[in-house]
Write a structure and sequence with these properties.
This protein has 7 helices and 10 strands. The chain is α/β, with parallel strands linked by helices. It has a single domain, classed as Nucleoside phosphorylase domain (Rossmann fold), CATH 3.40.50.1580. The chain has a 5-stranded mixed barrel, surrounded by 4 helices. The longest helix is centred in the C-terminal third of the chain and has 27 residues, at 269-295. The relative contact order is 0.19. Mean pLDDT is 85; it is low at 4-40 and 297-304. The structure holds adenine.
Length: 304
């Protein structure tokens, strides 16, 4: 049995939102208890790299949310927009993200995983304020050559990991709706002008992850040349996608573009996060979860 999971499924025809009954052991940190059963409802694991990105959603879970600490991370279990969710701050970097994804899957029985965060633009047509939804992800700093081809994950025989097509399509649609409906009201004209955000758009394509914050013109140019298909760069997504691939769990990643990965990338990062990106994450995830609750029957519409 997994944390926060009673083993009961949602009773047929029940009107009340299902609240997971929590066994006593949940308060013990680092208890490793796992079981994936086909009969359990799809619980969505939601990961973010930074606190401000999850704060609004934790608040929206309300007082019924339960928090469990495992491996120095707080996992919030509760209902959001009609979906059973586990929300966690993954922290920064591929190791942190991979460890958190494993815990979500093995201890919290997440049946799908969504990652929300920021990224630096790599492709020249991707601009600050745009949203990139991953179709494929790879680790741009992985290089075990000459033993294995550059970028290939040793022993997995692949460099690129696919996001779940159905979840990606839903996220891209929700991001477009957020930019049309929510963004104009939540982010003032002055803030938009301050950060140079002008009529932002949504892109779907390849995201590159690595354990470095890219903030120099030469670095981003080298990345662009080596991997011309890459739209943006961040520090976690491909690690999560690899873990989800290994466990056969559908995943999706979306990123708000905070910078151009050049010399000015770090300058307004915190301000952008607070004044712009935190609205994006919450606005897109709320729409996504509402759509998910309405359209995705547990275990059916998502591809593994
Ligand atoms: N996340 C946001 N901006 C980034 C950058 N320039 N490099 C890596 N990760 C990022």
């Amino acid at each position: 049995m997994s944390i926060g999971q009673s083993g009961d499924s949602l009773p047929d025809g029940a009107d009340e939102p299902w609240q997971p009954a929590l066994p006593d052991y949940v308060s013990k940190p680092d208890t490793v208890v796992s079981a994936l059963t086909a009969a359990t409802p799809v619980r969505i694991g939601i990961m973010a790299a930074l606190h401000d990105e999850v704060a609004a959603l934790v608040a929206a879970m309300g007082p019924d949310a339960r928090v469990h600490t495992v491996g120095q991370r707080d996992y919030y279990v509760g209902m959001l927009m009609g979906c059973e969710c586990v929300l966690v701050l993954a922290r920064i970097g591929k190791v942190a993200a991979a460890a958190t994804a494993v815990t979500l899957i093995r201890e919290f029985n997440a049946g799908s995983v969504i990652f929300a965060g920021l990224a630096g633009a790599v492709a020249t047509h991707v601009r600050v304020g745009d949203v990139v939804v991953a179709r494929h992800l790879l680790q741009h700093d992985l290089n075990a050559s000459p033993l294995f081809p550059r970028y290939e994950v040793p022993l997995l025989g692949r460099s690129h990991f696919d996001a779940c097509e159905a979840l990606t399509t839903m996220l891209a649609d929700c991001a477009s709706r957020y930019l049309a409906e929510g963004f104009p009201h939540e982010v003032s004209a002055a803030t938009r002008q301050n950060f140079g955000v002008d009529r932002p758009s949504v892109h779907v394509g390849t995201i590159a992850s690595g354990d470095c914050f890219v903030n120099d013109v030469a670095g981003v140019a080298a990345l662009r040349q080596a991997l011309p298909e890459v739209l943006c760069v961040e520090m976690e997504g491909a690690a999560v996608a690899q873990i989800c691939h290994e466990y056969g769990i559908p995943c999706a990643v979306f990123r708000t573009i905070s910078d151009r990965a050049d010399d000015s990338a770090g300058v307004d990062f915190s301000a952008f996060l607070k004044q712009v990106a935190s609205f994006y994450s919450a606005g897109i995830l709320r729409r996504f979860l509402s759509a998910y609750a309405l359209t995705v029957a547990p275990g059916t519409a998502v591809s593994r």
